Structures are given as structure tokens and as C-alpha cells.
Amino acid sequence: MNTTLSIQCARKYLGACLLAGLGLPFFCNAQATFPSRVIRLIVPVAPGGGADQVARMVSEKMGLSLGTSIIIENKAGASGSIAALEVARATPDGYTLMQCFVATHSTNPAVLKIKYDPIADFAPVGMMAQTSNVLVVGEKNTAKNLQEFLQLARTRQGGMSFSSAGNGSSTHLIMEYLENQSGVKLVHVPYKGAAPALQDLLGGQVDAMFPSLTTALPYIKSGKLRALAVASSQRDPVLPDVPTVAEQGFAGFSAIQWWGLCAPAKTPDAVVARLNKALNEALALPEIKARLHDMAAEPTPMTPGQFENFLKTEVAKWTRLVRETQLQIEQ
């Protein structure tokens, strides 16, 4: 930064800059000019799914608030770990962000040997939205509620099977969570992604699955899948007649699908605050609320501090579950 620009910055943000001490030039520049170019948002899943849709609709409105474009780059693979590692290593200036979600910042740290720290390597910006996970069975399954499902699993010859998006995925670990709480052992059938796992459930090759409500809702509405329980702490307004897992005998059971916004660690606080403001303004728009509702998702505005506490709680919960169940994941 040249001398003239430093002086201008100091005059405009004198009070804040004095508090910044030796970091005055960089602090002022971040505060005064961000954003001055296009922002990259790395989405760690393939285009077209629920996570990608949420990222695109929210980032479009954020860009209008920030006065710049936010470009989506989809980088799927390794349950989001490839994208997470790239962002963790990016320059902490606010111009490279990621849509962090349950895999990258909750379940992966518990089950995979990842090369990033979900807490230390990121600056949490805020939550985008969340949706319930829902236990579903095919239309030929006779279970009408969670207890009937568990009783069938206890008595059926060969046990009850469930599909997942892969070993260590959230759809795998949530069912392991249920097994741990209920004492019932199910047969795990992992797939390479949620789509084929869901298709085989629809086709009757497996008995159950625990996908996000965003993914399962169209099939529940059509009658091709039956919802037995939601894993959120309260009933989902989209399925008000479907009780929670907690209501059906497992107090405290909670496992949600969520999407958030993370920056690299050491991103200036002023930049994080600017991004958080734009994010929460986007989530407050009636249009965004309506579109998320149509996807069975709920806007969930948070401060950076609240989101950081949420991430720490999530990592601790899934790490504890894996330890208690002595779960071994093939990598």
C-alpha cells in the first residue's frame, strides 16, 4: 500500500485503525475496499443437488448486497475434503470461500484421515440453511413408525438393510447413531453417492435410508417412500404429522443436514463481518425464504461466533459417536 492510500485509509477509519495497532494498513485496506473483485465460492458437491441449489440462490443475493459477483465452482470428491483442503490453503482475503456442510465440517473429521482441521483452518462466516434428516422406507415395507421398524429389524431373518451415500457419509453415520441408541443392528449397503442409494431404496433392493428431507420430500409426497421419523429436535413444518426420533423413545437424538459459509483462517474480522452481513441479509429476503421452504429447508442466520460454536459442537458429537461405536471406516 502506498503512503497516500495509507493516509486516506487512516483518516476514514481512524478509530478502528488505532485499535488495530501494527496491522493498520492491512486492516484499513480490508475494511475500506472489500470487495473489489469477483469472489469464488467453492461448492464441494456436484451441480444440481440441494446443496448446490442453496449455494447458488444465496450467493446471488449476497453478490447484489456486496456489489460484486460471486462465482460458483463445484469441486466434488472425497466427501467434500478436496474442496475443503483447497479453501483451507487459500489466501485469507475473503475472495475464496466455501460452502461448508455436514460432511466437510461434521462427519469427515470424525471418520476420515483428512488433511485439514475443520476448526483451526477456517474462519466461520455463518449458517445458510438447514433441513431435517428423515428415516424413510419403501412403499412395500410394513413399518408405520420407528418402533415398528426397529421391531422388524430385531425379528426379520437376515436383518433389515439400509443404503447410504458411502462409508462415513452423513447418511451412514446417522443410521449408526440410531443403531447405537436403539441397540438394533442393521445391514449397511454403501453406494457411491446419495442418488444411487435412493434409487435402490425405491426399487426395493434395500429396506431403509436416512437422507435429508430436501432429497426425500418429492418421493414422500408421491407415496413412493414412507417417512417414519425426522432426526431434528422438533417436528418439521413440512411433515407435521411425522414425529421426531426423540419423541419415539430416544431423547436428545438430533442429526440435521446443514449448509454454511466458511473462509480460510486468518481472514480479517472486518471482511468476515461484511460477508456475514450480506449472508444474513440474503436469508431475510422473502424470495429466499420461500424458495428454501419449497426445498424443505429453513434459513438459519447466525453470527460468526454462533456458527463457530455450532461447528465445534458438531465435530465433538460425531467424534464421540464414532469412538463409542468403535466404527471402522474403509477409505
Characterise this structure:
Strands 2-1-3 form a 3-stranded parallel sheet, with helices on both faces. The protein has a 3-stranded antiparallel sheet with strand order 10-4-11. Strands 8-5-9 form a 3-stranded antiparallel sheet, with helices on one face. Mean pLDDT is 88; it is low at 1-28. The chain is an alpha/beta fold and 331 residues long. The protein has helices at residues 3-12, 14-20, 24-33, 50-66, 81-88, 102-111, 146-155, 170-182, 194-202, 213-222, 269-283, 286-294, 304-325, and strands at 39-43, 70-74, 96-98, 122-132, 134-138, 161-164, 187-190, 208-209, 225-230, 256-264, 298-299. Strand 1 (39-43), helix 4 and strand 2 form a beta-alpha-beta unit.
Write the layout of secondary structure elements.
Blueprint: H1 3-12, H2 14-20, H3 24-33, E1 39-43, H4 50-66, E2 70-74, H5 81-88, E3 96-98, H6 102-111, E4 122-132, E5 134-138, H7 146-155, E6 161-164, H8 170-182, E7 187-190, H9 194-202, E8 208-209, H10 213-222, E9 225-230, E10 256-264, H11 269-283, H12 286-294, E11 298-299, H13 304-325
Parallel strand pairs: 1-2, 1-3, 6-7
Antiparallel strand pairs: 4-10, 4-11, 5-8, 5-9
Helix pairs in contact: 1-3, 2-3, 4-11, 6-13, 8-13
Task: Considering the chains and any ligands shown, give keywords for the structure.
single chain; 331 residues; alpha/beta; D-Maltodextrin-Binding Protein, domain 2; 2 domains; three-stranded parallel sheet; three-stranded antiparallel sheet; 13 helices; 11 strands; 45% helix; disordered N terminus
